[in-house]
Amino acid sequence: MNALPFDPTRPFDLVAIGRLCIDLNANETGRPMEETVTFTKYVGGSPANIAIGAARLGLRTGFIGKLADDQMGRFIRGYLQTNNIDDSQVTVDHTGAVTGLAFTEIKSPQECSILMYRDHAADLLLTTEEISEDYIRQSKALLISGTALAQSPSREAVFLALEYAVKHEVVVFFDLDYRPYTWKSAAETAVYYNLAAEKCDVIIGTREEFDMMENLYNEPGADDRATAARWFSRQAKLVVIKHGGKGSIAYTADEASHRSGIFRTKVLKTFGAGDSYASAFIFGLMKGEDVSTAMRFGSASASLVISRHSCSDAMPTRAELELFLESNEEITGAAY
Amino acid sequence: MNALPFDPTRPFDLVAIGRLCIDLNANETGRPMEETVTFTKYVGGSPANIAIGAARLGLRTGFIGKLADDQMGRFIRGYLQTNNIDDSQVTVDHTGAVTGLAFTEIKSPQECSILMYRDHAADLLLTTEEISEDYIRQSKALLISGTALAQSPSREAVFLALEYAVKHEVVVFFDLDYRPYTWKSAAETAVYYNLAAEKCDVIIGTREEFDMMENLYNEPGADDRATAARWFSRQAKLVVIKHGGKGSIAYTADEASHRSGIFRTKVLKTFGAGDSYASAFIFGLMKGEDVSTAMRFGSASASLVISRHSCSDAMPTRAELELFLESNEEITGAAY
Amino acid sequence: MNALPFDPTRPFDLVAIGRLCIDLNANETGRPMEETVTFTKYVGGSPANIAIGAARLGLRTGFIGKLADDQMGRFIRGYLQTNNIDDSQVTVDHTGAVTGLAFTEIKSPQECSILMYRDHAADLLLTTEEISEDYIRQSKALLISGTALAQSPSREAVFLALEYAVKHEVVVFFDLDYRPYTWKSAAETAVYYNLAAEKCDVIIGTREEFDMMENLYNEPGADDRATAARWFSRQAKLVVIKHGGKGSIAYTADEASHRSGIFRTKVLKTFGAGDSYASAFIFGLMKGEDVSTAMRFGSASASLVISRHSCSDAMPTRAELELFLESNEEITGAAY
Amino acid sequence: MNALPFDPTRPFDLVAIGRLCIDLNANETGRPMEETVTFTKYVGGSPANIAIGAARLGLRTGFIGKLADDQMGRFIRGYLQTNNIDDSQVTVDHTGAVTGLAFTEIKSPQECSILMYRDHAADLLLTTEEISEDYIRQSKALLISGTALAQSPSREAVFLALEYAVKHEVVVFFDLDYRPYTWKSAAETAVYYNLAAEKCDVIIGTREEFDMMENLYNEPGADDRATAARWFSRQAKLVVIKHGGKGSIAYTADEASHRSGIFRTKVLKTFGAGDSYASAFIFGLMKGEDVSTAMRFGSASASLVISRHSCSDAMPTRAELELFLESNEEITGAAY
Questions:
Q1: By C-alpha distance, which of C180, C236, C239, C237 is closest to C205?
Q2: CB within 8 Å: D218 and C133
Q3: How close B212 gets to chain A, by Cα (Å)?
Q4: Given CB 3.0 to 4.6 Å as the disulfide criterion, which of B87, B206, D66, D179 pairs with D126?
Q5: Residues B64, B156 contacting (CB under 8 angstroms)
Q6: Using 50, 70 and 90 to split pLDDT, how confident is the model at B87?
Q7: Which of these ranges, A262-266, B34-38, B244-248, has the smallest mean pLDDT?
Q8: Whether C117 and B105 lie within 8 Å, measured CB to CB
Q9: Strand partners for A257
Q10: Domain assignment of residue D144, given as a range
Q11: Would you say B32 and B161 are in contact if contact means Cβ atoms under 8 Å apart?
């Protein structure tokens, strides 16, 4: 059990808003991208990955976003539909914007990097006119991710969606997902992240992401408990701070903390760990599991995805997740 | 008496942030600008005018803003200094920005218009790096005005100043001052106005400005009491809604409402009415007057300014204001 | 007599293309602009000034340009009409552009400076669609000035006008009029100046302007005769190089050179010297005078204008010019 | 033999300037890109392809261009070096620009399309400072292509290179290569294409490209002989007009015309036909072949490339070209 007030009468479990893009993952791994020759195309973008993961696990899921009017955009729509994600709120740009791209380079499990194409990306052209109050109030939860705040008009669209969510008591998850290349400065990022975060129920991010949000305001920083307390003084009921390989720690408003462990796996690449964690963690919470169990779901999903080639297409089904949990042991006791 | 908690130990009464620009008022009045030949130069910009008015009335005042590195910018700084406004937080742009201009046309007291030059204006280039937490916490009150939210990086600078003000219990006045020409869309405006207003103690605007803020969120609108209630549910303690020639109405969190009347005057132009009202109203509140008395100060100051050629240079001193109040009668009873 | 082949059958003597803007000249002279309080409004912009000067002297003149849809734009159109300049090719912007401004500061006759407002100026929005081949071929001569080459789409419009002029044997005057603030770099300027100049019949500029054009191409530079020869190898028939207070030198394709002297005058400011020179010089050439006489006209006109407050409104009529020439003596013998 | 005056004492045969980018060709052909899953990476861009083709055939080749500071940029440099193209004038952007991309879709040999990523492309950031007069005068010929004229500062860099080429009697080939997506309007394109073309010795383009150049100037258009004559009145010595599947026609300044035929091949896709034609045609001319023979080389090279998967990597060596010519018959007699 957890304290999040999901309204059981709503038709959608989770609506995600924001980035829909394309990953082009190098097929030849273990080498720099200068030497890779072929790439495989997948749907990508943090909220897209989380929505896909959530849908695979069985949540009734919708998406609010904007696609380029090209083959890449149509590929993404087809993939959403195939995964049973409602795409009625996914609009199409007609101004010549393109689909954002992420080329991945997998030199080794520890050395992964991404080459981004984000200029004139269609997803950042979502407008307030495309946000339906009626749609949002049909969902138990809304997922926003930080990249959609990076530019206008997408930023305003997300703030409007957030306002509707608050008004209609939709539980809001904020996956910080900070990607410096789409922002003008760290200060700009911190301002809008803070304005959004103070209205959210669950905030999930890395220690570095929380530091970025606190530095601008001269907060002392780097103390997980103080960070959590800061957000509990606003609207947050649950704050998850990720420490990379050292695992994660979740704080609840009752001052309790919960540490997640990890599952051993043969790591191919680290991409997708955060998104798969978030999707299974949200799934767990929405199924009424307690925070620790939901974190365990998250860790298991992450272990599955980082052993596979893609982020989105690698997301496990509920059966796969359960099988994995039954047949693998969590390693606890990470200390930091 | 009023409910605003001004901390008497602070050295500054009022710090204003935002636009500093130049008014060029046609000397030949009663005709279209096509036929005017000479112009007189004054300091302008809503927060600048309010700071000048407040300083003339005796408040210890400071300004946070940015000037162009040119003769217009230096003229503004000189004028602030002459009016005893602390300019230690007024920085200078070095990227080639210009000073915003407002050419005024006075066809008749009822037909006044402004021709704006706001492209590449220095005041909108204020950055978060130029906001001092220490300076803000030395003031009893902070005045923000809507124009400074129109563009990045000034927008982020104002949000940071606002956060510091909240943290240090500085009373925040928000003069909505909505000028469509610097904004991309009404939706963009409404998003940032709402994000700012929900952190402010006193919100002053016209009925149309409040409508603009409510329309985006599908609020029913146009009901003053409902508008005030909406903001009392956030941080506001006082909401002033202006109805042009019909006067203003102020709501306090105790559900009381206060109507202001007007003073008869020989109107030259309507420019500056709002800024002079705000400066004397704030002065009244900070001197511990009750809301109705402060509104009466505002109306008197407005009457003085609209009978004179400039906005800033026409602001009355305390002696002038008192003399006017003694020798003129307020007309009450506006009904709406 | 001069070698320029003006076609006597054409209805227009001179069509100018490019900048139409507003000068705001400080009424209080002999001080920095920080201390000036009032300004007088005049039509300005190099090609506008030259067209006005030429029309005052009696040439049948037209203008191709674009105005802002505001009071400043309408003031300019009225002034063109009053001065008998055909404005049928002067279009109006409907995208919100403004009228370019030039605030002048006259500290002393030797210390004059200009504060420009050129962001989003309507004149630079002239498009190729607004250039009429039929109009251009009705003129004996076309005047282009460098500022119109500074930005797209005005730049393309001028190149198209130039192509029509060449096709229909319209004599092209190029007043270099280099204003750094509208250009991105000296290299960009040099490229387009050279592409335009190589199609022109008469090129008029300062030594510094010709240097700027030659530096990029690694030409040795600073030798007037070599500069002239470079342009004679293209299309030029007459090259005028101005050396400020030292007077000007004109080269004709037959290798002859002509030096102009100056007239003593009580100088108020130096603005407008070049434009008034150009207008009377062109007038002289079009009336069939030899180069030296035309230069004498130019010097006389310049002397008149620099003793007066404006650039455009100060342009002499033919009667004024003749009276001045009769009653003043040219000082020759400038050596450089 | 042909009339082009290649200076035999120069160390380079051909220097190309402009676009260096990446092609991502769908591996799954015969279907829309929505259904393709993997892509293979090649060097692309018209001048890059022509330089690669020329180098493969044995010309001593150099390149002037700019690369992104990323894995794609380094891949391109490596490929140029492997193909013996001098890359000493290929600079690296340090402002965060990306490598231009072209995703290709091959539905059928007749239905090929390209999805371009050209926002913030590094190749368009080449500046005049990066153009070496000394390098250009070391080459017998310079190849420019139209895309490099699309934006500043690349446009100015190409005009400077062109000026150096004219000054040092480097033969200039202009492959029009008109790609609408990088231009603001057809009028803008036509202006700069014309300004460049009038300085070139050999102009190669499709009928549609020549029409675009003539439409703006109200030329009657669509008559090949008139088109050629127009350019012979400037600097051109050879004009090649391509009519797609109907073959090409070349005009020489002596009024002779030459028609090229085609070679039968199993067409995989049409991309690369123009670039391979140009590279072998230039090779033929530089080896002293007459125009008809050079055109035959071009047609043979095009036949080879359109039967293969890539554009650049498919370029034949001299041995491959000769073998093809020996073993295949040209089909002549195209009539239009």
A1: C239
A2: yes
A3: 14
A4: D66
A5: no
A6: very high
A7: B244-248
A8: no
A9: A251
A10: 12-19+46-70+82-89+121-331
A11: no
**Largest Cα–Cα separation, chain A:** 53
Neighbours of chain D (3+ CB pairs under 8 A): A, C
Structural domain contains residue D271: yes
pLDDT on residue A33: 93
Residue C336 in this model has a pLDDT that exceeds 70: no
H helix runs in chain D, sequence order: 46-56, 71-82, 133-136, 154-167, 186-197, 207-215, 224-232, 273-286, 291-305, 318-327
- Give the DSSP H or E segment for D332: none
Structural domain total, chain D = 1
- Distance from C-alpha of C197 to C-alpha of C188, rounded to nearest angstrom: 14
Which of C21, C22, C24 should be substituted to probe chain B, the one whose Cβ sees the most B Cβ atoms within 10 Å? Answer: C24
Minimum CA–CA partner of B28 in chain C: C40
Pair of tokens at residue D333: 């007699």
Q: Give the dihedral sign, CA C49/C53/C56/C61.
A: negative
Closest chain B C-alpha to C79 CA, distance in angstroms: 10
Question: pLDDT confidence of A336, banded at 50, 70, 90?
Answer: very low
Nearest CA in chain A to B189: A156
State the pLDDT confidence band at B336, using cuts at 50, 70 and 90. very low
User: Would you state the pLDDT for residue A1?
Assistant: 61
pLDDT at D336 over 60: no
Q: Is residue C311 part of a domain?
A: yes
Top-confidence residue, D179 or A244: D179
Mean pLDDT in residue range C253-258: 89
Produce one character per residue of A30-68: b if its CB has 16 or more CB atoms within 10 Å, e if not.
Answer: eeebbebebbbbbbbbbbbbbbbbbbbbbbbbbbbbbbb
Residue A175 belongs to some domain of the structure: yes
Residue A126 lies in a domain: yes
Summarised one tens digit per residue, pLDDT across range C5-26 is: 999 999 999 999 999 999 999 9
Q: Which residues of A touch B128 (CB under 8 A)?
A: 187-188, 191, 216
Render pLDDT for D191-234 as a digit per residue (tens, 0 to 9).
Answer: 999 999 999 999 999 999 999 999 998 887 679 999 999 999 99
CATH number at residue B297: 3.40.1190.20
Question: Which of D37, D41, D105 is opposite residue A37, by nearest beta carbon?
Answer: D41
Per-residue pLDDT tens over the stretch D51-110: 999 999 999 999 999 999 999 999 999 999 999 999 999 999 999 999 999 999 988 888
Residues of C in contact with D185 (CB under 8 A): 153
- Among A29-38, B287-296, D324-333, the least confident range: D324-333
Query: How does residue B219 score in pLDDT terms, banded at 50, 70 and 90?
Result: confident
Q: Is pTM, for the whole model, over 0.90?
A: yes
Distance CA B24, CA B42 (A): 6
- B and C: touch, per 3+ CB pairs < 8 A? yes
Of the pLDDT bands very low, low, confident and very high (cuts 50, 70, 90), residue C231 is: very high
Q: Do chains D and C touch (3 or more CB pairs under 8 A)?
A: yes
Chain A residues near residue B193 by CB distance under 8 angstroms: none
C–D interface: beta-carbon pairs under 8 A: 57
Question: Which of D132, D133, D163, D200 to mutate: most C Cβ within 10 Å?
Answer: D163
Q: How far apart are CA C157 and CA C122, in angstroms?
A: 14
Helix or strand holding residue C143 (H, E) = strand C139-145
